[in-house]
Specification:
Elements lengths: L1 H11 L7 H39 L2 H7 L4 H39 L4 H11 L2 H27 L1 H4 L5 H30 L1
């Protein structure tokens, strides 16, 4: 909705208010959808992954798995990575749809644009390549977030000077920060590669 307000303000200066649907759809599908979804999932699920595995590390549950000859990577990390690969594209799709509908509400009901023109611009602007790039970015971000958060949780007390709950909190904070930075860096790399 904010993108709709700002976009309308910018487009109205050149008399192109009818292009609001194009601006919102391409902005969401190409950039904002995958990036903001990944950052939100990192803050919620990524931090939970790191904390859960970190608590298992400091309470020696990971050592117990190894003693029982259970591979902790296959038991703990592989399911989280697989779940991330499934959920990230789905949530990105939901984010895009909700964002386009929010732009529709702003453009049509608050700013008085024609709803048919808005939807036509959305439909004609988004092409298969845009959706493919969105899908690839969401898969890339899923791998980044799950691997960084699982790594930081798995090696919690080995990587910090502190032990116990303080080590888990440090690992969780560093996992979220590092994931967000890598999301932005690899967003630029993926955009450069595809464009």
């Amino acid at each position: 909705m904010v993108l709709g307000l700002q976009g309308y303000n910018a487009l109205s200066t050149v008399g192109s208010e009818g292009m609001l649907g194009t601006l919102i759809a391409l902005g969401l599908v190409r950039e904002l959808g995958p990036v903001l979804t990944a950052i939100m999932i990192t803050g919620r699920a990524g931090s939970a992954m790191t904390a859960e595995i970190g608590v298992m590390r400091i309470s020696e549950q990971l050592d117990a798995l190894e003693v029982m000859d259970i591979n902790p990577y296959a038991f703990l990390i592989a399911p989280r990575m697989l779940a991330s690969l499934i959920v990230f594209p789905l949530l990105t799709s939901v984010f895009n749809v909700v964002g386009i509908l929010g732009g529709y509400f702003t453009g049509v009901y608050l700013l008085g644009l024609n709803g048919g023109i808005y939807l036509h611009r959305v439909q004609s602007a988004v092409e298969f390549d845009d959706l493919f790039l969105c899908f690839i970015k969401s898969l890339l971000f899923a791998l980044i977030v799950s691997s960084v958060c699982c790594f930081k949780g798995f090696f919690t007390h080995m990587r910090t000077d502190s032990a116990g709950p303080e080590a888990v909190s440090k690992a969780t904070t560093s996992a979220v920060v590092l994931s967000c930075i890598l999301i932005l860096v690899f967003d630029y790399v993926a955009t450069t590669f595809f464009i």
